[in-house]
Amino acid sequence: MSDTAARAFLDQLFSAAVAAAHPDTCLPPALPPPPSRGRLILLAAGKAAGSMLEVAERHYLDTLGLDPARLAGIGVARHGYGRPTQRLEMVEAGHPMPDAAGLAGAQKSIDLAASATADDLVLVLLSGGASANWIAPAAGVDLDDKRLLTRALLRSGANITEINTVRKHLSRIKGGRLAALAQPARVVTLAISDVPGDDPAVIGSGPTVPDPSTLAEAREVLARYHIDPPASIAAALHDSANESPKPGDAAFANAEYHLIARPVDSFIATEKLVRAAGLEPILLGDNLEGEAREVAAAQAAKARELKAAGTRAVLLSGGELTVTMRGQGRGGPNQEFALALAVALEGTNGIYAVAGDTDGTDGGGGDASDPAGAFVLPDTLARARAAGLDPAAFLANNDSTGFFEPLGDLLTPGPTCTNVNDFRAVFIDS
To answer: Any idea where the MOFRL-associated domain is (predicted)?
Structure first.
């Protein structure tokens, strides 16, 4: 297979993974009937919030003919991820750094939930990114302090479960508090999972489910990563009023939760394409965690083994990798994985790869135009060195975007309006 054809094939796999998790595909069959009396209150948050709200509005207003006067709600998505809605408000807010728009959108969501009656149905449309988009700091904590803490956590190398353990104890909406606010209404959550293991308590920081984590565990996360928080946050994490509702709490008596798309669903779709191309799909897991460069080294070694054995295959993997920032460069875990993979493969002939975040952006400054990831070709390092680029130096500076950008090897699909986290495919064309 030519380099051009191999890259197009990998791009096709990424697109299939995204399509399998898009709300157009997975949301309509899961939407519950509207309540017989009262209002249907739609509360959407996360990178898929715009598309989920768009699909849900179309279903209830156009397909079912629901009286618009009985529909209320709001969606809060990442900047650039909003979608046109017929009647409900769509807010675009900061991610991964929370901002004032997210603060206002979260407060409106809280107010709507708190206004619900026993006749209403509160339908929560949740996706990855909601933790940053729904920003409602606990009493005594302001937005600037939350931003400082978020920046420190993101640079620390902490995984998403650890980060969300802290977030849930500094919020008025996360960690089951949204369900408590909506009582006595029925609460139904439909979620697109972006976390390893698909744990509802971690997806979007679990605003409608019991939280098994504790204030003490949140403090332990900060100590583990040597993060010295602002005084207001340290005080909040010692305030028992900020403990989250636990399993068995009455707040969840009228709440139900359904996963409508998982990372594994995207890999089921891509495995079909791999087999149709006459290749062997090898799924290494949809829930991998760890340092991006370490996972890349391990997958490079596996790819070399398959190459030596004459196996034509595609290594598939998902999850959420981390990057411990030691440099000052640009890029996220998928781009760093790709750069580390290229270095480890050292131009091995016949091995190609793509690594991308299914939401369409990977790290960066939070702009919707940030790249989603990058492609690796057998001549990646040769082209880089011919252009005067030192791969090892870029890796040391965590500057994977700066490395791939001049080579034209960035993956740039733009906002996909869904999110089932990382997608990696390493194609061995023996």
So the answer is: 10-237
Joined tokens for residue 356: 């991308």
Give how far Cα 277 sits from Cα of 5, 119, 266, 427, 429, Å: 12, 52, 17, 11, 11
pTM of the model: 0.91
Distance CA 213, CA 134 (A): 19
User: How far, CA to CA in Å, does 79 sit from each of 71, 190, 333, 343, 393?
Assistant: 25, 22, 20, 33, 32
Q: Which residues contact 222 (CB under 8 A, 6 or more apart)?
A: 166, 228, 229, 237
Query: Which tokens sit at 59?
Result: 């279903």
Q: Which of 65, 71, 143, 69 is nearest to 102 (CA)?
A: 143
Cis peptide before 184, with omega less than 30 degrees from 0?
yes
Instruction: Write down the pLDDT at residue 367.
Output: 85
CATH 1.10.260.40 fits 3-17+264-428, yes or no: no
The per-residue pLDDT for range 395-408, each reduced to its tens digit, is 999 999 999 999 99
Tokens of 386: 């011919």
351-357 vs 186-192, strand pairing mode: unpaired
CATH fold of 23-136+171-210+245-261? Rossmann fold (3.40.50)
